[in-house]
Amino acid sequence: MYIVIYRFKVKQNLDQDFIKSWKGLTDLIYKYEGSLGSRLHKEKLNYYIAYAQWPSKTVFENSGGKLPIEAIKYRDSMRLACEEIEVSNKLEVVEDLLMDKIHAEK
């Protein structure tokens, strides 16, 4: 598995516009480009971190050409809502211990 971590500095009062655009674009990337989805985290006021998961580095590097035209709307809207967008890390997964359910106490 391959992970790409993004950091966003969102303009004042544009958090909801950013989140809506991020969700729309992420959904299209999942549907059309083969990603495994993404999680968005709030770091602090106006700063967000997104963790995008891909089946492999190759799938990630070959992505982008299959998106429908509506992806441009989401991408442009997301960029307009941000002061900064950066890729902070690209990582290969070594071990994965994330769980899909909560472990019940006995």
Automatic annotation (TrEMBL):
<keyword id="KW-0503">Monooxygenase</keyword>
<protein>
    <submittedName>
        <fullName>Antibiotic biosynthesis monooxygenase</fullName>
    </submittedName>
</protein>
<dbReference type="InterPro" id="IPR011008">
    <property type="entry name" value="Dimeric_a/b-barrel"/>
</dbReference>
<dbReference type="GO" id="GO:0004497">
    <property type="term" value="F:monooxygenase activity"/>
</dbReference>
<keyword id="KW-0560">Oxidoreductase</keyword>
